[in-house]
Amino acid sequence: xxxxxxNYERLKFDYPQDRILRITISRxxxxxxxxxxxxxxxxxxxxxxxxxxDIDCVILTGDGKAFSAGGDFxxxxxxxxxxxxxxxxxxxARDLVYNIINCDKPIISAxxxxxxxxxxxxxxxxxxxxxxxxVFITDGHTRLGVAAGDHAVIIWPLLCGMxxxxxxxxxxxxxxxxxxxRIGLLSMCVEDGELEEKTLEVAAKLAAGAPNAIRWTKYxxxxxxxxxxxxxxxSTALEMLGFAxxxxxxxxxxxxxxxxxxxxxxxxx
Length: 269
Prior knowledge:
Elements lengths: L10 E7 L2 E6 L10 H16 L5 E6 L10 H9 L1 H20 L4 E5 L6 H8 L2 E5 L3 E2 L3 H4 L7 H9 L1 H10 L3 E2 H6 L5 E3 L4 H13 L3 H11 L1 H5 L1 H15 L2 H12 L12
Parallel strand pairs: 2-3, 3-4, 4-5, 5-8
Antiparallel strand pairs: 1-2, 6-7
């Protein structure tokens, strides 16, 4: 194991094949929900990966039954109450997206279970997304009482079109993986028992390819995402604005109490 990956607490690293690095989000007792440590590690590990000359491809997956259940409630509550935490989270949310986009190496997500919040960000921003058929995709921002920030505005309209993006991002409806593949939100979906094998097959193909040709293709294609940067920056700022207001507080309370939210009416802009 490279020394660069030894000090991570919420991410595990292994090499399933030559020059392929597998990163596993590992907090299985909480469905790999990201606390402040995990969120920061998932944000900045891509800079390490970018500089790692010993690998040509990366796989990102989750430990156990989930990919990642997003930010844990304690972290979200702190965002709603502490301005410094809110502004730092805004920076990390932006850095997570741009760090994945700008990482030189091709990245494959092996979506083995629920992917929410920052977990869904990473899963869908990976260059190739492969999901188990049993998985459902949900962006739950508006249900939480905040704007669909994170990755949604920068990539959903490009992957599945504006009409589908608006429908799923505003309603928070659950989308089966097979439907997500059909509309272009996912690269492919496979039987649950075939996920690891298929992911390794694709990773091996990329690792055996021409490194510069693949990396330059990724860089050029991701200019489409870079052009959407101003829209993305606006969405994350509006998401944080929501966390600071009554809708974000009510959304979090409803999730914790396992009830439908009752958002205040008549105060919309």
